[in-house]
Amino acid sequence: MQIHAAMAGQEDQDDLIAASRHAVAGSRVCIQRAKAQTEVAAHRIERARNLLQSLWLQRELLRRRRAARLPRPFLMYCRVLRTAPPRTTLNAPRGEGAVAAPKSLAEMVRDKLDVGTLPVDDPVKMWSGRGTGLPCTACEQAILRVQIEYEPQYDDGRPLIRLHIGCHGLWEAERQRRGYLPPK
Asked: How many domains, the chain?
């Protein structure tokens, strides 16, 4: 009976050892899984960190590009006078192949006043605001959104007149020079 009890105790010990080995193996598997999950999580964190860094760099580059494209001070957009490019009279082409020099903005305003495209009388109202992208009546170039657009309003059904601020100043100066406006 003692032998049987001893054997039963030995079997219990063997069962305990087997159970502990099984538990150790299971815990090793759990530890390996945990390590693998930790590595996966670390890899995902590193990818997220890299993604955030690249997004931050892209945002910073975009911010710098936008800062570089900010509208310049208003006076830089005002074309008060457009002059012909410098040219030498010695080498200027003459005859049939000659190219005429572009007119200054003041000459263009004078010509349009002579033709009647620009009116000589005072408008009923004068509207001003941001440019709409439509062409200026005086210089025929688009009035950009960063520029000021003047729009004199007449009650007699004339076509709309749009002017850059510089073109408007030249128009008023020429009308004043010709005596259509009282001196200021």
From this structure: 2
What burial class does residue 138 get, using C-beta atoms within 10 Å of its C-beta: 0-12 exposed, 13-18 middle, 19+ buried? buried
Which of 33, 52, 70 marks a domain boundary?
Answer: 70
pTM (whole model) above 0.85: no
Are 94 and 183 members of one domain? yes
Q: What is the mean pLDDT of residues 122-136?
A: 91
- Say how far apart CA 20 and CA 25 lie, in whole Å: 8
Instruction: Give the three-state DSSP class for 177.
Output: helix
Tens digits of per-residue pLDDT, 160-177? 899 999 999 999 989 988
Which two tokens mark 99? 């190219």
Identity of the amino acid at 82: R
Quickly tell me which residue has 């007449």 as its tokens. 154
| Burial (Cβ within 10 Å: 0-12, 13-18, ≥19) of residue 171 | buried
